[in-house]
Amino acid sequence: MDIVQKAGLVELSWTAGFQVVNFLILFWAMKKLLFKPVSEFMANRTNEIESGMKKAEDKNRQAEELLSDYKNKLSNVEEEGRQIIREKTKVAQVKYDEIVKEAQEEARRRMEKAEVEIEREKEKATAEIKDSISSLVVAATSKVLNKELNENTHKELIENFIDEVGDGSWQN
User: Fold this and answer.
1) What are all long-range contacts of 51-59, with beta carbons under 8 Å and residues at least 24 apart?
2) pLDDT in tens, the chain (172 residues)
3) Which of 34, 50, 158, 171 could be 30's S-S partner, Cβ–Cβ 3.0 to 4.6 Å?
4) Is residue 141 within a helix (H) or strand (E), and if so which, with residue range?
């Protein structure tokens, strides 16, 4: 052994051979018992991660679709709101116009009624004035003529006087 060691060569012994064989048996056993389950575990884990990533992508896509749908619905709701406001504004304008028209019609009717009332009061006042004037004319005429007038003469004088007063010719 000394010569082999002096030459720098490695001496092979049975122990080293057994160690190599033991190592190979251990490697094979580990490969069968440990590497295969670990490889399967790693493959399963990789599949689970990929499946989770795919599910996450699907959920993300669904969330984006929902967001897009909600945005569309929101814009539709906003447009419907604007449409409702426009319709209600039109209805309010129509009601406003109707109320104004009714108020104007009521004012016109009241004005006509007032004009009729004024005309009636004017005629009443004119009739009262005619009666008063008739009495005054009869009294004045009676004094001037110093006599009583008969009914026909009385009516004739009154009508002539009223015609002159109505024409304004008595002022000339």
Assistant:
1) none
2) 556 556 565 566 778 788 889 999 988 888 888 887 888 889 999 999 999 999 999 999 999 999 999 999 988 898 999 999 999 999 999 999 999 999 999 999 999 999 999 999 988 888 888 778 777 777 777 666 655 556 777 777 778 877 777 665 555 5
3) 34
4) helix 36-145
